[in-house]
Specification:
Length: 250
């Protein structure tokens, strides 16, 4: 048999607002387009709709920037209120140069602007990452299981830049139900060599595979990954964070 899987965009979810039940919205939209969720499916869900449903929206008019934020904003050419929000969402500033602010979030993700985003939200509004993306993923898994009876895998995906590479790519910032990493350590390749460094970030790869279907302007915030044999597990997305003791770039 040919090894294959498919990625199905879920259209028609519409604008998500604070308090909305994302699991119910996904189920309804998938049913309307005749692609209801099946056992063994994975759901890749945009961070933006999760954050909106959880009320992780902040009006900049309500933000008073600190003296530090004002000074940093002047050097970056940025809105000091936005810089203040970014600093609140960060545990440390990694790099600040040429208008770019790279920080480490409280979750441990290193990314531009602590994941704070102003796209696809009202003017003068900032959208923040979920407080605990793995918890959000678990709640979505539980909600979908309650509505369908299926034990599904959940990936909450966001778009990150990468050092040394142009272009953005989706990565997994929240995971539930599947093991996010596939390790080949200790296994032998066809030539008999023992693999010593091959650890695949499966959840990131699947988040990236879903992005071309979801897009940034197509209003398709969910994709179903179907036909893939994936390992169940509860490690969550933190398994994807490299131990600082082994990180050569810190």
């Amino acid at each position: 048999m040919t090894v294959r899987y498919e990625v199905i965009g879920v259209e028609g979810i519409g604008e998500v607002r604070p308090g909305d039940d994302v699991a119910a919205l996904v189920i309804a939209a998938a049913a309307r387009q005749s692609t209801p969720l099946r056992p063994g499916d994975l759901a890749v869900i945009s961070q933006k709709i999760v954050s909106k449903a959880e009320g992780r929206l902040l009006r900049l008019a309500d933000v008073t920037p600190s003296a530090v934020a004002v000074a940093m904003a002047a050097g970056l050419g940025r809105d000091p209120r936005l810089v203040e929000v970014i600093l609140r969402e960060s545990r440390r500033v990694v790099r600040m140069d040429r208008g770019v602010l790279v920080t480490e979030t409280h979750h441990g993700w290193v990314c531009a602007n602590a994941g704070v985003d102003q796209s696809n939200v009202d003017a003068d509004t900032a959208c923040l990452l979920p407080e605990d993306s793995d918890r959000s993923a678990r709640q979505l898994r539980d909600g979908l299981r309650g509505l369908t009876g299926h034990d599904l895998g959940i990936i909450i995906a966001d778009t990150f830049g990468r050092p040394w590479r142009e272009g953005l790519t989706n990565i997994a910032i929240g995971v539930a139900g599947l093991e996010p990493i596939k390790s080949y350590l200790g296994e032998k390749d066809p030539a008999g060599h023992v693999l010593q460094a091959t650890i695949i970030a499966l959840a990131d790869e699947l988040a990236g595979a879903a992005e071309p279907v979801m897009g940034k302007l197509d209003r398709i915030p969910v994709a179903i990954v179907r036909g893939l044999n994936w390992q169940r597990g509860d490690s969550g997305s933190r398994a994807l964070l490299r131990d600082p003791a082994r990180d050569l770039f810190r």
